[in-house]
Amino acid sequence: MDGRTLQTIALRLEYDGAAFAGSQLQANAPTVQGALEEALARLTGGVVRARLAGRTDAGVHALGQVAAVELPERWQPDTLQRALNALLPEELSVTGAVVAPPGFDPRRHALWRRYRYTLLTTPWRSPLWRRYAWHVGEALDRDAMRAVLALLEGEHDFAAFSGPVKDGASTVRCMHAVSLCEEDARIVLEFVANAFLPHQVRRTVGQLVEVGRGRETVEGFAALLRAARPGSAGPAAPPHGLCLVEVAYRDVSFAPLVAAARMGVGCTR
Fold first, then answer.
1. Which candidate in 2, 57, 184, 251 is catalytic?
2. Does 57 participate in catalysis according to the annotation?
3. pTM given for the model
4. Who has the most CB within 10 Å: 24, 59, 159, 269?
């Protein structure tokens, strides 16, 4: 990279998580960050690091992951978007690009994140949904599930629903909103929080399905939440039903996704 003035560009990324061993760079496995940085290197002839808004596990999808890169000012966002999409693998696309304020950090500056988890309750499996929904294969008690979701709103210690965290790290998070909507045999769960713990959504969904199946009570779920015993909730739902839908910022915003880009993800409330 030469000495010309650099600017920060924020990129909105969509990807099929089945193609990647997660979002964060790994030495010997395909990742979202690795694919993006490889494309940037081909465009610029140098090393360009991408910072991501959050870590997604292997198999987890995204409609609204956000990355930040620093490039010379000659790179306009729309030009960069087209150039990257010509080089990226078909499972990864840049769906938005904007100039961000200096020092923009997509992880630390996020106001909130929205995740969506899709369940399929048909008694038969669906080849078309097998990569994007957890096929639970039975009817679930949706009223009980809604009662559980109401318990999650607000600030709580979510240690019971977390994977391993660093020693001394807080497991308190603020859940701004949760919802359950349905369309035919699909149940779509949404979680909006200031930040999420490792595996928090998947463990929450796994325990929620236990309630829906009648194997756990609403009171039992509430007790797990109150006790905050690390890792006690679960089992974790499989990763392929999970999608990072949106990350919100005060000073960075992207144009809304067109309807076609949202097909097959949400449902009618």
1. 57
2. yes
3. 0.93
4. 159
